[in-house]
Amino acid sequence: MVVTAHPDDEAGGFGGSLRLYRERGVETFVLCLTPGQAATHRGGAQSDEELAAMRRKEFAAACEILKVSRGIVLNYPDGKLHLQDLYRVVCDLTLYVRQFRPHVMLTFGPEGAITGHTDHSMAGVFASLAFHWAGRNNRYPDQLTNGVQPHRPQKLYYATATFALPDRQPITLPPVTATVDIGDYFETKVAAFKAHKSQSPLFPLFENHVRQRGRQEMFHLVASVKTGPIALETDLLAGVQED
Ligand SMILES: [Zn+2]
To answer: In 3-state terms, what secondary structure has residue 224?
Structure first.
């Protein structure tokens, strides 16, 4: 389960891993908090509503390319996740965790990943709390009806990198603890990003940066049901127990 802020984050931040693990038979679920209606690049849209509708379709097309099992775009306001009621947003996310029942969750760290976007920071904060609270029967107990049960995912990762974007405010990234070799799915990831046609002015910048990074996606293990010293990983499912 991947929790993001904007349509295109799923491809740019997690696309290679989403496609790779789907190929390995893993069910994948992307939950995107906003329809990206505040984007600078508007693809000719005349209003926020029109842009939101356009970007929902682009998200669905990208999910198709990445063969995501289930992709959902919620309706929180783009650019304003830090102004939302934390307890309410985490309530929404916790219910999705309890329904989808992921073994592993991926999101951004509180630094906001390489772009440092406040929405990325907040998506990571909300998702981290949902990760920790979904398994406790004393958090949002009202949800625990009609077959909804607490669910404790086994691992939480933040997307990270070993470089910073030029000409931006400094960010302090979490150290890399897991490096996933995405192989030829690198091209699938680029194709999924380019499904976000309204964001086409970003394509050269994106492609330049991902090509420099190569065929790897990097993550930081934040929490794990297995305690003990951290191990460097090449597989996000390492040590994960099947139900
Ligand atoms: Zn984003």
So the answer is: strand
